[in-house]
Every structure is written in structure tokens, then in C-alpha cells.
Write a structure and sequence with these properties.
74% helix, elongated, mainly alpha, single chain
Length: 130
């Protein structure tokens, strides 16, 4: 009986995860993740004024394990990863494929910047860059 109930719970969760359409996912990223990440990038842009301890705290605050607002399911690292997924998936939309070259270049620049930030957080999280 335990196995059946566990199976049903897993099926219900998987149905809930598949219920998001690309539009709903994009809206969630824009509403939740973008403002949080922009605030964090704003602080990171001023890092030349911060001490080494403050920079360490800034990067540590971005990681999911130490995020103050983890009850909301939002961390800077998770937000950046979701934005990368959104930008990667956007290439399949006809509007993006037909967009101007200027838009494509800006999209690539944003993707590269987010990927660099994500890579740095991974290095920091795994102790490669203390």
C-alpha cells in the first residue's frame, strides 16, 4: 500500500510540473526571478567598494542553501539558472528567430553574462574559488 501511495504522489507531482506552458514559465521568471537577480547584480556591480568579507557574503547569499528567503523558493543562483533556461528555450520561438540582429546580439550578451555569473557561483559553491 505504501508503494501505491508513493507512486500516486509522484505521478501527481509530475503532472503539476508538466502543467506549466512556456508562457507561464516565462511570466514566472520575469515576475519572480528577474527583480531578485537585478538587485543582486546591482550589488555585485558595486563590489569594488566592498571588502573581501562583504564580497564573500554577497556570493554566499546567492546560493540556495544559505538564502534567507528560501521559503519562497527563490535564490539568486536558481533565478539565474531559470533565466538561462528561458533564454535558451527562447530560440525556438518564431518571434525570436525573426528578430533583428541587434536583438539577437543583446540576447547572446545577456546569456553569456548570466552563464559567467552561474559558473562563478558554481565555483564558489564547490570551494574552488574561496
Amino acid at each position: 500500500m505504501k508503494w501505491v501511495s508513493c507512486y500516486l504522489v509522484a505521478v501527481l507531482f509530475s503532472w503539476g510540473a508538466l502543467a506549466y506552458t512556456p508562457d507561464q514559465y516565462a511570466q514566472q521568471v520575469v515576475q519572480k526571478d528577474l527583480p531578485v537577480s537585478l538587485r543582486w547584480f546591482g550589488k555585485a556591480a558595486q563590489s569594488e567598494r566592498l571588502s573581501q568579507v562583504e564580497i564573500y557574503d554577497l556570493y554566499q547569499s546567492a546560493l540556495p542553501a544559505t538564502q534567507v528567503n528560501k521559503q519562497l523558493g527563490i535564490s539568486i543562483k536558481g533565478s539565474i539558472e531559470r533565466m538561462l533556461i528561458l533564454l535558451d528555450g527562447a530560440r525556438y520561438f518564431e518571434q525570436v528567430q525573426k528578430a533583428s540582429e541587434e536583438f539577437q546580439n543583446k540576447k547572446e550578451l545577456v546569456s553569456k553574462t548570466l552563464q559567467i555569473a552561474n559558473d562563478e557561483m558554481n565555483r564558489f559553491q564547490y570551494g574552488e574559488d574561496p
